[in-house]
């Protein structure tokens, strides 16, 4: 069974000191191996230009240290100062890196002169922000599609698609017709708006019954061969104008292949089964397989099953497709019941679907349990490179802070997983406190060690694993394990149980004793080999030069050698001892 093991965690500052309300989750962009970009929003922030205004700020962080490299605010060009801010920062979408120093994302703002009929509420307009130079804070804001004055609510969905030729194709929904606009990577329009997909899907019968198709939920995926996939949720509505009832609705994911210039290549393709009555697709993700095919995963909720505790009946399903969009076999259901015992998940939050470093696919989701706002349990399932499920889905943590607004996963260039979340404290009430958590993981498999650099997981029983040459990582998990590092600079984490842990010989970096997954704080004395608390209870340790603490308060003591002591989260006490030591406090108040 695979094991997703944490290797580091940080809590970089959010773009705003959030001692006011917090307005929306923001987004994260991974521009390259060293730069992390956080797009955040704050309401009533101390440095906001006007009381009660909402700011949108780009914060550029060093990926390794979490140090702030640059901050710059976004100014809406169509709204007069001092209210020069975006109205809906919580609608940031499609944050995509174009290269190591530029990216594009979309965000809603208010149109200054166009209002909804018989109201004074401005119409919301989707803008594109091309950040052309991260280092200098240069950006261009454009509006791809102006709303129709007669149907101001018609423009509701858009997606930005990086093309193989270096341009960006923007597709939007205008009065049920999909229209397009192409830009260069610096935000310069190439030509004008054009009709990408006409809408001609309405029929009415003499008795008043009607049928129509409605498109929403636009998304895309860039493929390794230079093509892209444009996808959307197609809703079939069946109703009767003479019957005062909402129409029946059935969702399905459909899409088109696009060539490097953004031109449709072939006919419409179906990427999911049609949902049953009352089930609605709330989120879907696409990821490419290493064989050129791809996987489509979607979450659907039965809106008719909503109860007083805000629980839904939910499904999480996926299908495997070849490079031409042909379904391989059947559609499959994932087990979403992973989590606390004796409860059923409420609404399923599908977070990410990613191609892993070994060519497999990771599917990551959360399920709120019993009351929707009690806790979110991050859960994962791993597919092999062909798309077959490897064992049952498994929980990553016992629980996370309630109201994790932003929650997503990505892959770093070195192959490690990154999870980020913006946690906003208690459910309900203002002001909100918020933390931005940035955690790195690796996927460890139950495989024999080799002479290379291995990442190995033990089982839930007692294991004996002797590593070979190489800089390895081994995770014993549950059971009373015997883990031996042997040669190389190894990271050894015993997990639960009374474990025997031996770092073995090493080179310049040294071997690391890790308790990062422990559910409680630990105390470690390297000099005497004494450890206790959390997962350290009952362990016997030797041969280590470095310590990785937990997310909680730890007491970590080095020895006479050169040690690296990392506290990670929590209020830690860290002591290097003799030698040329490196002390990393991590998040929390440390001594």
Provide an overview of this structure:
- The chain is mainly beta and 591 residues long.
- Among the domains are: 126 residues; 130 residues, no CATH class.
- It has no helices and 44 strands.
- The protein has a seven-stranded parallel β-sheet, with no helix packed on it. A five-stranded antiparallel β-sheet has the order 14-15-16-17-18, with no helix packed on it.
- About 9% of the residues have low confidence.
Describe this structure in a few short sentences:
By secondary structure, the protein is mostly beta strands. It is built from no helices and 44 strands. The model is unreliable at 17-24, 44-53, 78-90, 341-345, 369-374, 398-404 and 426-432 (pLDDT under 50).
Walk me through the topology.
Elements: E1 3-10, E2 27-30, E3 35-43, E4 54-62, E5 68-73, E6 88-99, E7 102-115, E8 122-133, E9 138-142, E10 158-162, E11 168-174, E12 177-183, E13 189-197, E14 202-204, E15 209-222, E16 228-240, E17 248-258, E18 269-270, E19 279-288, E20 294-302, E21 313-321, E22 332-333, E23 345-355, E24 361-369, E25 376-383, E26 389-395, E27 404-411, E28 417-423, E29 435-444, E30 455-457, E31 464-466, E32 473-475, E33 482-484, E34 491-493, E35 500-502, E36 512-514, E37 523-525, E38 530-532, E39 540-542, E40 546-548, E41 555-557, E42 564-566, E43 573-575, E44 582-584
Parallel strand pairs: 30-32, 31-33, 32-34, 33-35, 34-36, 35-39, 36-40, 37-41, 40-42, 41-43, 42-44
Antiparallel strand pairs: 1-29, 2-3, 3-4, 4-5, 6-7, 7-8, 8-9, 10-11, 11-12, 12-13, 14-15, 15-16, 16-17, 17-18, 19-20, 20-21, 21-22, 23-24, 24-25, 25-26, 27-28, 28-29, 37-38
């Amino acid at each position: 069974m695979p094991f997703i093991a944490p290797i580091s965690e940080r809590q970089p500052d959010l773009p705003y000191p959030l001692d006011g309300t917090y307005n929306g989750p923001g987004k994260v962009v991974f521009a390259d191996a060293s730069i992390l970009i956080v797009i955040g929003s704050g309401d009533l922030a101390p440095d906001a230009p006007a009381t009660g205004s909402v700011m949108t700020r780009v914060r550029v962080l060093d990926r390794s240290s979490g140090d702030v490299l640059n901050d710059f605010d976004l100014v809406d060009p169509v709204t007069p100062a001092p209210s020069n801010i975006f109205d809906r920062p919580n609608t940031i979408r499609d944050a995509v890196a174009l290269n190591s120093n530029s990216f594009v994302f979309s965000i809603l703002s208010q149109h200054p002169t166009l209002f909804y009929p018989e109201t004074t509420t401005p119409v919301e307009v989707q803008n594109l922000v091309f950040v052309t130079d991260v280092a200098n804070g240069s950006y261009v804001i454009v509006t791809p599609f102006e709303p129709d004055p007669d149907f101001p609510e018609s423009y509701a969905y858009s997606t930005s698609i990086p093309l193989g030729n270096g341009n960006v194709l923007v597709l939007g929904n205008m009065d049920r017709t999909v229209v397009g606009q192409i830009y260069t990577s610096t935000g310069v329009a190439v030509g004008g708006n054009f009709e990408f997909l006409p809408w001609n899907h309405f029929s009415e019968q003499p008795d008043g019954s009607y049928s129509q198709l409605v498109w929403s939920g636009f998304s895309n995926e860039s493929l390794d061969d230079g093509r892209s996939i444009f996808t959307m949720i197609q809703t079939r509505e069946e109703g009767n104008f003479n019957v005062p009832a909402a129409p029946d609705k059935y969702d399905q994911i459909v899409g088109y292949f696009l060539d490097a210039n953004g031109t449709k290549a072939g006919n419409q393709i179906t990427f999911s089964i049609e949902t049953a009555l009352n089930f609605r697709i709330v989120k879907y993700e696409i990821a490419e397989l290493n064989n050129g095919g791809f996987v489509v995963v979607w979450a659907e909720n039965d809106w008719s099953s909503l109860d007083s505790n805000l629980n839904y009946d939910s499904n999480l399903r996926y299908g495997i497709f070849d490079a031409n969009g042909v379904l391989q076999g059947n559609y499959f259901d994932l087990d979403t019941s992973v989590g606390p015992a004796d409860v059923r998940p409420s609404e399923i939050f599908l977070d990410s679907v990613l191609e892993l470093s070994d060519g497999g696919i990771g599917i990551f989701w959360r399920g709120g349990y019993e009351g929707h706002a009690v806790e979110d349990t991050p859960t994962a399932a791993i597919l092999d490179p062909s798309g077959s499920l490897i064992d049952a889905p498994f929980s990553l943590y016992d629980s996370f802070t309630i109201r994790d607004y932003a929650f997503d996963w990505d892959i770093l260039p070195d192959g490690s997983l990154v999870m980020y979340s913006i946690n906003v404290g208690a459910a309900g009430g203002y002001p909100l406190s918020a933390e931005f958590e940035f955690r790195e993981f690796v996927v460890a498999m139950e495989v024999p060690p080799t002479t290379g650099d291995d990442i190995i997981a033990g089982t839930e029983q007692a294991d004996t694993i002797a590593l070979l040459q190489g800089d390895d990582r081994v995770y014993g998990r549950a059971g009373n394990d015997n883990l031996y590092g042997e040669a190389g600079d190894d990271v050894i984490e015993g997990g639960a149980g009374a474990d025997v842990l031996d770092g073995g010989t090493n080179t310049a970096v040294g071997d690391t004793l890790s308790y990062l997954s422990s559910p409680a704080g630990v105390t470690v004395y390297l000099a005497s080999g004494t450890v206790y608390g959390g997962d350290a209870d009952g362990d016997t340790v030797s041969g280590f030069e470095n310590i990785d603490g937990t997310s909680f308060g730890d007491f970590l003591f080095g020895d006479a050698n050169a040690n690296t002591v990392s506290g990670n989260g929590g209020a830690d006490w860290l002591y290097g001892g003799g030698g040329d030591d490196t002390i990393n406090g991590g998040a929390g108040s440390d001594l």
